Every structure is written in C-alpha cells, then in structure tokens.
Amino acid sequence: MYRHYVRKRPTPSFNAGATSHPHEAKSNNNQDQSEEPSKDPPPRPIVLITPGKLVIYALITYFSYKFYTWQTNPRRSLTLNPKFFTPFILQSKEFVSPTSSVFNLLSVPLGQNTDNIIEACRTGVWSVQVIQPDLQIARSYTPLPPTEGTPNEQVRLFVRKEVQGEVSGFLHRISPGTLVHMRGPHLEYQIPDDLDEVLFLAGGTGIAPALQVAYTLFSARARTGKEAPRMQILWANRRREDSRAELEAPDVQHFRTDLMGRIRGAMTGGGSGTKVITKPLDEGTAQSEGVKQTRLVEEIEQLAAKSAGKVSVEYFVDEEGSFITESLLGSLLVGDSSSEVASSDSPPPKKKLLLISGPDGFINTYAGPKEWQGGKEVPGPLGGMLMQIKPQGWEIWKL
Fold first, then answer.
1. CA dihedral 17, 19, 24, 25 (to 10 degrees)
2. Nearest to 198 by CA among 184, 187, 188, 209
3. What is the rounded distance in angstroms from the CA atom of residue 138 to the CA atom of residue 129?
4. CA-based nearest residue to 170, from 141, 128, 127, 133
5. Which phi and psi (to 5°) does residue 22 adopt?
6. Burial letters for 150-188: b for 16+ Cβ neighbours within 10 Å, e otherwise?
7. Angstrom distance (rounded) from CA 355 to CA 92
8. Where are the beta strands (DSSP E) in the chain?
9. Distance (Å, whole) CA 235 – CA 124
C-alpha cells in the first residue's frame, strides 16, 4: 500500500523588504556587506625625500646656523676683529684722482675701536678686509695712518677703482652714510725697534703701507733716547694726476716731443734714457711753479716736515719717463764696501730694512713674485731687479 506525500510549496511573502527574485536577493546581500565599516585603518601616505630636497634642507640648516652664530656673536657689532665682519659707516669720501679716492669710515657704534687701532698702528703694517655685500667677495686694503683732528679709530682707505674690481667698484658707488663691513686688523709686518735706515718702494696705492711705517716710527712709538731712523720713500705712479699735478711744465712739454726716445731709453734699462724728477716740494716751490697737490700729497709732505729731515719722498711718473731705475737703486743700496770692514773698535753694523708694496707687476719687476703656501700668500724668494743688484746688509720684505 502506497502512501503519497505531498510537498508543500512555500507561501510567498508579501513583506515590503522582501524580494521575489533570487538574484536580487544575492545583490542585496553583497550591498549590505559592502556598507559595513572596515576594521583596518587607512594606509598612510608615503613621503619621498629626493636628493634635491636633501640639498635644500642642508643649505637651509647651514645658513641658519651661520646666521645664528653671526647674530649671537658678542663682538659682532662692537669691535673690529679678524674673524667676523664688523659694520662701519662711510663718513666721507675724498677725491684724490679721477681713478682713486680716500674713504673715511667710523665704527658703529662710535668709540669701540680706539684701542685696537692704536695698537695696530704702534705695531707695524696692518690691513683690513672689506666685503662686497651682494657677491660676498672680500679684498684686503692697507689703511692710511690717522691725521690731526680725526678720531684715532677712524679707518681711512686709499682705493683705486679697478676696471673689473668688484670691491673697489662697490666702494666708489656708495654714498656717505652707507654701512661697510670689515674685519681685521691683520698684521702684515711687525716693524723692529732697532732700525737705522728704511727704504720703501711704493707703487700706486702702495704708498699707504709706506705712510703706516713712517707713522709708526715717528708718531705712534715713543722713542726713549735712541735716534729715529732715516726713511726714504720712492713713490711711482702711472700718471701725474695720481700724485702731483702741473710740476715742471717745460720738462713735460719737452718729454711730449721726445716720447719715443725716452721709451727706448727706459727699455734698455739704463738711466741715461730716463729722467728722474726728484725735486723737493715746499710751499715756495708750489706757489712759484703752480703745483696742484692732492690731499694725500699734502699729508705726505706734512709727515716729512715733522720728521726733522728724517723722511724724504721722491716722486716718479711713468708717462713722463721717470722710473725707479736699477742704477738709482744700486746707488741707494750698495755702499762703500771698504768703509764697512768690521774691526774691534767699529760700531755694530746698521740695521737696514727695504720694503716694497704695490700692484703685482710692480713687485714682480723689482723683487720677484710672491708665492702661495698653505693657503696663504708669502713673500717668496728674492728676484727681479733687486736680485740683480744683490744688496748686502738689507732685510727685504714684500708687502
């Protein structure tokens, strides 16, 4: 006997949220699963540091450190020092020639550099470095000695404007009241106390260290009983306007008519073909011959007058055929050897010093080029015209 089982069909649901199609139900389930919040946190963005960014960060860090050390340096704006650049204010400019001027600078604030500048003047030849603020290029200059009526801490720079000189061009462009940053003093040569004779060969702006030496020997140092040494300065310039103007006009006219002959004489190296103008200059000569002196020449002559005949200055002008010749140097450096024979009763030999300063070409011609050793410029071996003369008993130093 068979029993029949009847399968009951499910009763369709009429709820609002129900679906009648199985595919629609599956899609709804997937939608519900996708709307559930994820339990994992979102991934963090990856920051990539490229080599260019590393370079920029390193530069920012370096300059920030340099600015911090400059800002926190206690001597930054107080005293002139060899390490940090100190602000000075340009007080005035004095015209010397169409290509050169004297710049008078005072420290900021005033009264901070009196002691160290006086000490530098008492020690010997010293220089400062002036920086061009835009290009950060520095150049060394030898200050002129102080004059009467000016503060002892005043720094006076005799600067010739060079064609491609960034620092000299900057100084000639600025106006009084502009800040100029300098560092120093840098001692170039310490002058001995026991000198008997000094010969200084100066070319162009090389007259500044020559005047420093004269000021140190005859003004800055108090001499106790010992007689002051004798000092002779030979100052050479390319043009008359750089030193003294309108001196010996007839001779200048004669030179113009015989220019080639003088040039040939100078090139042969003999003194016969050149004419050396070494006429002493005083007030009577200046008035009678119509000499126009610059302020710098006036200072030189005043310094020579105060030395009681111990300082003499001779002027040479290239374009007028007057040169410091080998024959002239020989007469000044080579004495009578028979009179210098030592004996038991003879006094000790004199201590004689020859200094030379000026452009590289001037120093190379007379004493040979300087050299670089260990990142510093040193005088190097003696060469040039002085090597041919071979002076005995002279200490020779290139500045």
1. 70
2. 209
3. 6
4. 133
5. -65, -35
6. ebebbbbbbbbeeeebebbebbbeeeeeeebebbbbeeb
7. 30
8. 86-97, 100-107, 124-132, 137-141, 143-144, 155-160, 179-190, 197-203, 230-237, 244-245, 292-293, 311-317, 352-357, 371-373, 376-378, 394-398
9. 19
List beta partners, residue 186. Answer: 127
From residue 16, how far is each of 13, 19, 20, 21 by CA, in Å? 9, 8, 11, 14
In whole angstroms, how far apart are CA 196 and each of 23, 172, 226, 237, 310? 120, 39, 10, 27, 11
CA distances from residue 254 to 138, 259, 261, 334 in whole angstroms, order as listed:
44, 9, 11, 33
CA distance 332 to 354: 11
| CA triple 75-77-79, angle to 5 deg | 60
DSSP state of 181: E
- 3 state SS of 320: helix
pTM exceeding 0.85 = no
Cα(382)–Cα(6) distance, integer angstroms: 132
Contact (CB, 8 A) for 373 and 215: no
Dig out the tokens for 83 from the structure. 């390490």
CA distances from 149 to 144, 153, 218, 242, 352 (A): 15, 12, 18, 25, 33
SS3 234: strand
Check residue 90 and give left, alpha or beta (phi > 0: left; psi -120 to 50: alpha).
Answer: beta
Token readout for 125 is 């030849």
pLDDT per position in the chain (399 positions), as tens?
A: 555 555 555 555 545 444 455 555 445 555 555 555 556 677 766 667 788 888 888 899 888 877 766 555 544 556 888 888 889 999 999 888 888 899 999 988 788 888 888 889 888 999 999 999 888 899 999 999 988 878 888 999 999 988 888 999 999 999 999 999 999 899 999 998 888 999 999 999 999 999 999 998 888 776 555 678 899 999 999 888 777 654 444 444 344 434 434 444 444 444 333 333 333 334 333 333 444 567 788 888 888 888 888 899 999 998 888 899 999 999 999 864 444 444 555 567 778 999 999 999 999 999 999 988 887 888 889 999 999 998 888 999 998
